[in-house]
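Hi R.,

As promised on Friday, here is the backbone we talked about, encoded as structure tokens. Could you run it through your design pipeline when you get a chance and send me back a sequence?
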């Protein structure tokens, strides 16, 4: 078996074992465990969305389909974006993928090759750095600074990390795992810098609808590159049906990209998945056009969950965190904790709660734990109760 492994590309082999997988493998399926480690709620996909997929199947939508997405879904994406954002993207700017993850993978494949660098603030979702390393590109991680008043991105540090090998800057706002939302002035500065240096921006805005700012005067959506960039510039936005409409298991997402990239993205999609099932795309149309009430209910649940998690952890001596303003995670540190993976394993065994270790999210996250608070109320209250009692016993 060693020989077989040795015959693989070193980049594919050298991906370090993910500490999230260590923790999930330890606790998965365990009786009575409340898992808050994953990025999803516990509501099922709403019936009206499932019905549209069933109808698609019954109508015989079982053949190969358009690589870029069915025209009806690309039209619906254009309508959805026109409702929410300032820049007038057309149906030809949208590309349907097998999830936010495939959108990111496709963007990376289009932009970065062997020896290229991509700059990204951390702590960050690990699935940017992983695919970059697998390709022989180098993720250049720029740690943000933690303060209970909020995480800070030092723009000078971010821009100083750019070299002549840099191809792109990745920004995830609202952030998984931080709940940080990039201020409008940061996005403008990054856009201007990227324009000046000819860099791509890969903007991951999958949590854009989960926004609960402290500032009551803020609008309904967080600042977005889609409001300040042109349709035909170096911007690829990655998005997904997963989070808004409880469709994580469907594996369906989209990209917003310049039309000039159409042929290239079409090829990449063809070589990766050869398109997304047409009957699922029918459901995507319905989610975009008719899914606002369901989404509002999910956002209400997330806001309530944030308040429950916040109140519970505020009562714990030595727990510190910034109040999340977006997404559905609380990223907290414990005074004296040195190994977040070890701590997450103990919390599974001794408290019956599954958390994600901060070490998984790159530099700056090592002393943190992440919990997902998009949960049905009773289950979240029970999880927080178990967790706070464990923390009280173990401090
Ligand atoms: N981007 C971020 C920041 C995420 O947290 C996730 C999922 O957790 C995704 C993208 C991808 O979502 P999916 O592949 O389920 O569409």
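Update: got your reply. Pasting your designed sequence below so it's all in one thread:
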């Amino acid at each position: 078996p060693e020989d077989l492994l040795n015959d693989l590309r070193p980049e594919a082999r050298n991906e370090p074992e993910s500490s999230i997988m260590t923790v999930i493998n330890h606790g998965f399926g365990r009786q009575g465990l409340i898992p808050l480690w994953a990025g999803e709620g516990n509501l099922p996909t709403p019936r009206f969305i499932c019905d549209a997929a069933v109808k698609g199947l019954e109508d015989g939508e079982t053949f190969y389909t358009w690589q870029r997405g069915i025209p009806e879904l690309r039209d619906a994406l254009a309508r959805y974006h026109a409702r929410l954002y300032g820049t007038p993207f057309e149906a030809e700017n949208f590309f349907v993928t097998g999830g936010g993850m495939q959108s990111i993978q496709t963007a990376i494949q289009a932009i970065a090759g062997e020896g290229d660098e991509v700059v990204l603030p951390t702590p960050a979702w690990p699935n940017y750095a992983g695919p970059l390393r697998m390709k022989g590109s180098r993720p250049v991680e720029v740690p943000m600074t933690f303060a209970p008043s909020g995480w800070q991105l030092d723009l000078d540090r971010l821009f100083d990390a750019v070299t002549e090998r840099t191809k792109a800057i990745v920004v995830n706002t609202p952030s998984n795992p931080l709940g940080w939302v990039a201020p409008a002035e940061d996005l403008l500065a990054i856009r201007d810098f990227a324009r000046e240096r000819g860099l791509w921006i890969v903007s991951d805005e999958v949590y854009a609808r989960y926004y609960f700012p402290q500032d009551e005067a803020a609008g309904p959506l967080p600042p977005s590159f889609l409001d300040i960039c042109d349709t035909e510039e170096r911007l690829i936005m990655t998005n997904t049906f997963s989070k808004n409409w409880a469709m994580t298991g469907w594996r369906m997402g989209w990209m917003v990209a310049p039309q000039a990239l159409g042929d290239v993205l079409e090829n990449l999609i063809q070589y990766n998945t050869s398109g997304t099932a047409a009957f699922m795309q029918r459901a995507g149309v319905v989610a975009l056009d008719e899914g606002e009430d369901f989404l509002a209910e999910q956002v209400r649940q997330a806001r309530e969950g944030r308040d429950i998690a916040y109140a519970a952890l505020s009562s714990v001596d030595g727990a510190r965190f910034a109040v999340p303003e977006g997404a559905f995670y609380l990223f907290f540190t414990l005074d004296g904790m040195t190994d977040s993976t070890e701590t997450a394993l103990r919390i599974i065994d001794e408290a019956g709660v599954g958390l994600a270790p901060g070490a998984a999210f790159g530099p700056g996250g090592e002393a943190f734990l992440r919990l997902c608070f998009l949960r049905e109320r009773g289950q979240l209250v029970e999880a927080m109760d178990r967790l706070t009692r464990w923390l009280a016993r173990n401090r």
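One thing I noticed while checking it: The pocket of pyridoxal-5'-phosphate is lined by residues 39, 99-101, 125, 172, 176, 204, 206, 240, 242, 248, 253 (CB under 6 Å).

Thanks again,
M.
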